[in-house]
Design goal:
Chain A: Its cofactor is FAD. Chain A: Keywords: FAD, Flavoprotein, Oxidoreductase. The structure holds 2 protein chains of 2 kinds. By secondary structure, chain A is of the alpha/beta class. In chain A, strand 14 and strand 15 form a beta hairpin. The longest helix of chain A has 18 residues. Chain B is an alpha+beta fold. Chain B contains 4 helices and 4 strands, in the order E-H-E-E-H-E-H-H. A two-stranded antiparallel ribbon of chain B has the order 1-4. Chain B has a two-stranded antiparallel ribbon with strand order 2-3. In chain B, a hairpin with a 3-residue loop joins strand 2 and strand 3. Classes of the chains: A alpha/beta, B alpha+beta. At the A-B interface, strand 3, helix 8, strand 24 and strand 25 of A face strand 3 and helix 3 of B.
């Protein structure tokens, strides 16, 4: 389709501003240039580092196999951008089309892409969070500091929250023979993301590897010594854990505060956008010039009842950034929908865990290949008689098949025979997801209803 | 040099671990662990590994982007 005059001008000499200089922001910038955008490109990021990859931080970097500063992301191409790193966006004026920055300046845009992502949810008690030895793990600086402390040989590490990040941290500690206690509010590790059946396997893995795993408990308080160093943690079952390091792994918070009052449909669950990555305003009207991608976005997905879906997934950041960038510089008839099937991976305790679809939607689960007791299996989740998700432990090769099953809404339980079907995989059982309104580490994929202006908060931790 | 592996794609064929063992290693039976910022001396091995990957999961920094890295490193970010 031929471009109209204004679109041609935008592509030739327009100004595109990307707020959020991590994986999604970088891939979007590359796509813009790849597709012929030759105007001015400004990249704004609150961290001083150029875009880097986060998954290695809880694995290679904590293990000391790779220095934290080795994680800068490779560029697919030169992007010829103006970089404003170490500068946070503090406000957005939709009328003036301006982004306000922490250094007091502002930047005007023709098109804006928001990829501000998430940050680690901090320990709710600020005094306790400030104790020496209390960490979160999200940024390269977090990883550098935590690795440094792990190397010094702490007496015991307490991991608060057994989601993927917490479990990977516990795994990295055990691999270095460090004593670890994991405290998880749910019935098992990973229970929010994969349900109790798979969570039980994760629990056995942790215990076999020497983790002191405590489930069904909450940490109610962290106590320091007179010098302000963490000494111990108090648990809701009345017990005390002596530890000099605590890593708070209670999931993530979306970086949307800077948009408060801007009129954009942004809240604690993210920024609502349409399937073409255009942001909604609070009235539910889609904007023409503000786009969203990555962890901070919530977008409707046809495979999951068109509910808004928030994904804290590496692959989603890449795929959505590419779609957003394409749509930013194309006319409506040439725009593409973001209909990526959720996928993620985690490596912990020597096992490769991968998943496709939306497991927390699953009502039932069936082990279609391998067996839970072997720690090598493929399990499929069913929702209202169709396949909605699958997870593998060291069986990644089968996932492509199940991804197609999900995309075709194939019937559940699967009627076909499969290789390596065991007796315990003949019947589906309840998948065992906890009530999503209960606070926990949370799943990394969340269905968040149909309201583009949703402002409900989903996490209320118990106070000490 | 810089690289990244799309671990959604990776299926643990381990071709990279044979071709560039100082950069890619298997961690357990299926999980891949790698150095995203290996020494430039590894370039030949890494390129061979990326070429051999059956699912094309390895992205190595593009030559034109790498060439501008020098300028990038010296550039003022407060522009």
């Amino acid at each position: 389709m031929p471009l109209d005059g204004s679109l041609q001008r935008l592509r030739r000499e327009g100004h595109i501003v990307v707020v959020g200089a991590s994986l999604a922001g970088l891939r979007a910038a590359e796509t813009l240039r790849e597709e012929g955008f030759s105007g001015t490109l400004t990249m704004i990021g609150d961290e001083p580092q150029e875009p880097y990859d986060r998954p290695p931080l809880s694995k290679q970097v904590l293990l000391g196999k790779v220095p934290a500063d080795h994680t800068a992301l490779p560029r697919r191409r030169a992007i010829d951008a103006q970089w404003r790193l170490g500068t946070a966006a503090t406000g957005l004026d939709l009328h003036a089309k301006r982004v306000h920055l922490s250094d007091g300046s502002s930047v005007e845009y023709d098109r804006l892409l928001i990829t501000t992502g998430v940050r680690a949810r901090p320990w709710p008690n600020e005094l306790e969070a400030d104790l020496d030895g209390v960490f979160v793990l999200r940024t390269v600086d977090d990883a550098t500091r935590l690795h440094h402390r792990l190397k010094a040989g702490p007496r015991r590490v307490l991991v608060i929250g057994a989601g993927f990040t917490g479990s990977e941290i516990a795994s990295a500690c055990r691999e270095q023979q460090l004593p670890v206690t994991v405290a998880e509010r749910g019935a098992a590790p990973l229970v929010g993301a994969l349900g109790a059946v798979v969570g039980e396997v994760a629990a056995e893995l942790q215990r076999e590897h020497g983790v002191d795993l405590r489930c069904g408990v909450q940490v109610t308080g962290l106590e320091g010594d007179q010098a302000g160093r963490l000494r111990c943690a108090h648990l809701s079952d009345g017990s005390t854990v002596e530890a000099d390091i605590a890593v708070v792994s209670l999931g993530a918070t979306r970086n949307t505060e800077w948009l408060a009052g801007s009129g954009l449909g942004a809240g604690p669950r993210g920024i609502a956008c349409d399937a073409g990555c255009r942001a909604f305003d609070v009235r539910g009207i889609v904007t023409d010039d503000v786009f969203v991608a990555g962890d901070v976005a919530r977008s409707p997905h046809p495979l999951f009842g068109y509910q808004f879906l928030s994904l804290e997934h590496w692959g989603n950041a890449v795929a959505q950034a590419e779609v957003a960038a394409h749509n930013m510089i194309n006319s409506s008839a040439d725009r593409r929908p973001h209909v990526w099937t959720p996928s993620f991976w985690s490596a912990q305790f020597g096992v490769n865990i991968k998943s496709v679809g939306v497991p927390p939607m699953g009502e039932e689960i069936i082990v279609t290949q391998g067996s839970l007791s072997d720690r090598r299996f493929t399990a499929v989740y069913g929702y209202r008689g169709r396949v909605i998700a699958a997870v593998t432990f060291d069986q990644a090769k089968w996932l492509d098949f199940y991804q197609r099953q999900i995309e075709q809404a194939a019937p559940f339980p699967p009627p076909y025979p499969s290789v390596d079907r065991r007796p315990d995989g003949m019947r589906p059982v309840p998948a065992g997801f906890p009530d999503p309104s209960l606070p926990s580490h949370g799943p990394t994929v969340t269905l968040s209803g149909h309201s583009p202006a949703d402002r409900r908060v989903s996490f209320t931790p118990m106070r000490a | 040099m810089r690289l990244v592996v799309d671990l959604n794609r990776c299926q643990g064929y381990a071709q990279c671990a044979f071709l560039a063992p100082d950069v890619f290693t298997m961690h357990g039976d299926e999980a891949l662990m790698y150095d995203p910022g290996p020494d430039d001396a590894q370039r030949e091995h890494v390129l061979r590994a990326a070429e051999a990957c059956p699912v094309k999961a390895i992205t190595v920094e593009a030559a034109d982007a790498a060439a501008s890295a020098q300028a990038r490193a010296g550039a003022s970010y407060a522009a």
